[in-house]
Every structure is written in structure tokens, then in C-alpha cells.
Design a protein that fits this description.
heterodimer, A: mainly alpha, Arc Repressor Mutant, subunit A, 2 domains, B: alpha+beta, five-stranded mixed beta sheet, 5 helices, 8 strands
């Protein structure tokens, strides 16, 4: 086997494991294929540049792989921010479960007004309940919120329970009851 | 929580996410957290006030939420890919040996969980190793459980007789030392259990095991 083949094999082994995991976990977390494609390419390219020899690939420590992959992802994010139009198009293309294409203008208006009221009601929640409620409604599980905030799960559970109770009461006071929200 | 409330919670989530997607179309990114700030949160390096501030924004901005998810995914996947280098700790092998001598799996009998709360529990999917069931132990207290190959991290809970958490910790390790600051009464009876957080979102848990502090 030539040194080039050896390098390719070693690197492919690392990359293929990374790619498999990236796709399977990424899809479960709701990231789309375009994001995952771009991430995979970015990390692959970065590892090829960083790990120039097969010895380096085999001897690469977790911390080095971590820094390389995180740096690649961070650069991808910076690059995307420099061209915000792409994100805008991605968002416009995304399906909106609550508003079907061609929904009547008054229905759209009503729903956007409802969303604005919900947002305003969350703004008025006491800190830090508002943060926990926003993260929960964004789709994070209690354990994930606890990990991100560096708090215990029981603390997050308590804040979330109270925050949602406050939110329901606030929405009810605004004339938004269970039927209205549903 | 009633079924009606659960249904309404889902509707609330849908309405909120739709709002975030709409807002993103006109988002002024100069108001967003910087990529470096988002990274600091993912890596747990941001001080608490900063974490709260940044996550408050992330929870109200679909674009920053997506970026945080990309960074979090990268971090989790690298750790998962590197997992074989982290496992096979000698202490686990020794602990497993001790437990086998004592009767092994028979000791991990299933017990009822602590009362109250909505903590999800499995049917002993995570094996608790040491201390053995109902053993009198001395301080310092160290708890050991078997590795879950699919775990990204573990959460340990030490409960008092009433099932209230006395010590809760998240760790990547399969060993946890209970700090001296946690007051455990000599002769007191406690319970502990471990839950694994897997990358696929499932959270298998151990049974709940009793332990006693030596008088």
C-alpha cells in the first residue's frame, strides 16, 4: 500500500465514522441535509489539511479532533453570516406547520397576532423562568436545557413548571385560552 | 398534567416555533449573539450571567438556535467518535469483579422508585455496581455504575428517604464521589439511581438502589 493510500484509509476511517454519526444524530435533531452536507465537507477538508500524514491521523488525540472540527463548524457559521440571504431563503423554503400555503390573509394575520401575544407574555415572565420557557418551546428537553445553562435538571424542571403555569395564566388574562391556543 | 394541557402545550410549541421562523426572515443579525459567544455556551465556558443572556436570545432566534445546534452536534459527534478511547477504566473492571463475587446480577434487584415527580425511569437498563444493594457504607461515598456504550453523559441522583434529591450531578464518567458538603446522617438510609443520556434522545435508567451510611 502506498503512503498516500495509507493516509487515505486512515483518514477515511475517521471521517466515515464522523459522517455517519453526524447524519444520524443531526437528522434526529432536525437539522436538514444541506447543513449536514456542508458541515461534513468543511470538517473533511479541515482534517485533510490538518492531518497531513497517516501517523498524525492515527495518533490524533480527541482534543485535537475536537478543536479541528469545532473550528471548521465555527468558520462555516461565520461564512453563512457573511451571506445572510442564504439563511433567509432556507427559512422561507421551510415548511410552516401552522400556516398552510395560500392561507387566507385574515387567518395569517390572526396567527401572527397570536404569536406576538405569546412572545410578549414570555417577555413578561420573571427571570430566569423566561429563558427556560423559551428554550423549552424552541424544542429543547429539560436535560438539554440543564446542560446548556449549567444547572441541575430538578432546578430546570421547577423553573419550567412554574414558567409554563405563569405563561398559561398570562395568556388566559389576554383572552387566549386552551381552545384559542389549540 | 392533564391530557388537555399536554395537547395545548404542543400547540403552544408549534405557535412559538412558527413565530421564530417568521421572525428569522427579518432578523437583524447585529442583535444576535456572536458565533464565539454561542461556542462559549456550548463548551460551558461562558459565565452564568452570560450564558443566561445568550441562551435567552438563542431561545428567541431561530438562526442562533440553528447555529448553536450545529456546534453542539459537532461537539457531541466528536466525543462519540472518540468514545472507545475513553472507556475500559480499570476501576470499572475491578468494581465489576467485586460485584460478580458478591452474586452479580442478583444483587441488582428492581426496587420501587421514590415517590412523586415525573422522572423517567427505565427497567434497570443501566447497571449499578457499587456500593451493593442495602450496604452500610462510610464516607467518603463513591458510587460506581457500568458504562452504557451509547451514553453521551450520565445523571446521578442521590435521594433521601422521601425521594427528594440531595445530590444531583451530570458527568461523562461512570464514577461519582459525593462531596462532603452533602450532609448524610450516620445510620441514615438513602437511595441512588443513574440515567444515561444518549445521542439518539433516549434516556435509559437504572433501578433505584438503597444504601445506608454506617453509624
Amino acid at each position: 500500500m502506498s503512503p498516500r493510500d495509507s493516509l487515505s484509509g486512515a483518514l477515511d476511517s475517521v471521517i466515515s465514522r464522523f459522517s455517519r454519526m453526524l447524519r444520524s444524530v443531526g437528522r434526529r435533531r432536525g437539522l436538514d441535509d444541506a447543513d449536514l452536507d456542508e458541515m461534513e465537507q468543511e470538517v473533511r477538508l479541515r482534517l485533510w489539511k490538518a492531518l497531513a500524514t497517516s501517523d498524525r491521523v492515527r495518533g490524533a488525540k480527541t482534543s485535537y479532533l475536537y478543536q479541528t472540527a469545532m473550528s471548521a463548524t465555527l468558520d462555516m457559521i461565520r461564512r453563512r453570516r457573511a451571506r445572510p440571504q442564504e439563511d433567509l431563503e432556507t427559512m422561507e423554503a421551510a415548511d410552516s406547520p401552522d400556516v398552510p400555503v395560500g392561507a387566507a390573509p385574515d387567518v395569517e394575520f390572526e396567527r401572527s397576532e397570536l404569536a406576538a401575544r405569546i412572545d410578549h407574555a414570555i417577555d413578561e415572565l420573571p427571570e430566569p423562568r423566561d429563558v427556560v420557557v423559551r428554550l423549552h418551546l424552541s424544542g429543547y428537553h429539560r436535560n438539554e436545557i440543564a446542560e446548556l445553562l449549567g444547572w441541575t435538571e430538578p432546578k430546570v424542571r421547577n423553573l419550567l413548571y412554574r414558567g409554563l403555569e405563569d405563561l398559561r395564566a398570562s395568556l388566559l388574562a389576554r383572552g387566549i385560552g386552551p381552545r384559542r391556543v389549540a | 398534567m392533564s391530557d388537555t394541557h399536554e395537547l395545548n402545550d404542543q400547540a403552544l410549541e408549534r405557535a412559538y416555533r412558527t413565530m421564530l421562523e417568521r421572525r428569522a426572515k427579518a432578523q437583524d443579525r447585529r442583535e444576535c449573539a456572536t458565533p464565539e459567544e454561542v461556542l462559549a455556551v456550548v463548551e460551558g465556558k461562558a459565565p452564568e450571567p452570560e450564558r443566561v443572556r445568550i441562551l435567552r436570545h438563542v431561545g428567541s432566534c431561530a438562526l442562533c438556535h440553528k447555529e448553536l445546534e450545529l456546534l453542539r452536534l459537532t461537539a457531541d459527534v466528536v466525543h462519540e467518535v472518540a468514545r472507545p478511547q475513553w472507556t475500559s477504566k480499570p476501576v470499572l473492571a475491578a468494581a465489576a469483579g467485586v460485584v460478580l463475587v458478591l452474586g452479580g446480577v442478583a444483587l441488582w434487584s428492581s426496587r420501587g422508585g421514590p415517590g412523586g415527580g415525573d422522572i423517567e425511569r427505565g427497567a434497570g437498563a443501566i447497571e449499578l455496581l457499587l456500593p451493593a444493594e442495602d450496604t452500610a457504607v462510610s464516607r467518603p461515598l463513591t458510587l460506581v455504575w457500568a458504562s452504557d456504550p451509547a451514553a453521551s453523559r450520565y445523571q446521578l441522583e442521590l435521594l433521601d428517604r422521601n425521594g427528594s434529591p440531595m445530590y444531583v450531578v451530570e458527568t461523562h464518567d461512570t464514577v461519582a464521589a459525593v462531596p462532603d458538603s452533602v450532609k448524610l446522617e450516620p445510620g441514615g438510609e438513602y437511595r441512588w439511581w443513574v440515567r444515561s443520556a444518549r445521542l439518539d434522545g433516549t434516556q435509559p435508567a437504572s433501578t433505584v438502589r438503597r444504601l445506608r451510611i454506617a453509624p
